[in-house]
Amino acid sequence: MQAQIDAKQLQEWQGRSESLHDEVTAFPVRALAATLESPYVNSVATGDALPPLWHWLYFLPLHAQSALGADGHARKGGFLPPVPLPRRMWAGGRFGFTRPLRVGDHMEKTSTIGSVKVKEGRSGPLVFVTVRHEIAVAGSACLWEEHDIVYRDAPAADAPVVEPVMAEQGAWRREIVPDDVLLFRYSALTFNGHRIHYDRRYVTGVEGYPGLIVHGPLIATLLIDLLLRQMPEARLTEFSFRAVHPTFDTDAFYVNGQPSSDGKTVRLWASDHAGRLTMDALATLA
To answer: Which of 39, 50, 105, 129 is most solvent-facing, going by the fewest CB within 10 Å?
Structure first.
């Protein structure tokens, strides 16, 4: 039975805002550096800068256990609109970096729901929610982020098959083996309870996927990790990524990169074992 979407009611959430405070502590940085086996984060002390996207280690969702839904996410409503569709995924994001966050910084994050859009997809209704986050330290802006969330129904058995987009060959390529431990550690570091990333019985039996799903933010972080392995002194001013296809832990996947001829941008993308494009991204350098 297809869910009934009240677009007008959901759009009442547009403009809602909340502010949170947190401190850039050293332990999560050390833990993620160990998880990614980072060659460019050697020591972590007060004043050291975070690599781009590592702000996702902070402002973590601290919902009570009793407030979680069957999928491990917080029940719908509250800050985000109560979209009556069972599947929720991180579809993409855009970022602007003004200055690095540093260990010891006391941060303020202001989040605002920018838009709620209802569309009809091949497999049924889709709801896209865009949230804008702005992080500042002592009143000085450090970064902004636009976070795209997509909600959709479980696909029907007769849903049309979407033709995959095949990835290109780039100058850089690194193989990633997404084993259970990597996915567990990233879920733990970001306090992400979504069961599709660690509960194989749930993700295959309830949601019908072939394996655990690799976190979109983890893939985006690995794309920038590839850039910094190749260009350790690079400084990003903007970054954007778009999820194209889920990545599962059943096979290795690849992060790829191609610098532009003028050195101002780097195209980054992820591809699966079959060569399908799974994430597309662009980094703009200072």
So the answer is: 39
